[in-house]
Amino acid sequence: MSDLPQETRDQLEEEQRLGNRAHKAYVDFIEPFIAGKRIALCQNFFDAKIDQLEEMLEAKRLNMILDSMENEVLSVINTGKMASQQLNPTSE
């Protein structure tokens, strides 16, 4: 058993649980959703005429939002993995 204080252990266990839930949501829904949206945005971008600058910029902005959302979820997943490693330092 770890020498971690109970409060720290509780926090790490919560981060681990949240990371596991985020991973499941990411694999089951978020990742395929984002991939589909990126394909649609790229298609919209490439289909836009040269004088449709606002449409191209909107596609770029939406893609940046998708990147930001994905990075946030991946951060939660990675925090959960790190918490798991702290709780179980011998398991790799």
Number of strands: 0
Radius of gyration: 19 Å
The outline comes out as: elongated
N to C succession of SSEs: HH
What class would the helix/strand composition place it in? mainly alpha
Q: What does the average pLDDT come to?
A: 93
Short summary:
The protein has 92 residues and is mainly α. Helix content is 84%, strand content 0%.
Structural features, described:
By secondary structure, the protein is mainly alpha-helical. The chain has one domain (6-85). Helices cover 84% and strands 0% of the residues. It has two helices and no strands. The chain has helices spanning 6-47, 53-87. The radius of gyration is 19 Å and the shape is elongated. The model has no long low-confidence stretch (mean pLDDT 93).
List its traits.
92 residues; mainly alpha; 2 helices; single chain
Give the topology.
Elements: H1 6-47, H2 53-87
Helix pairs in contact: 1-2
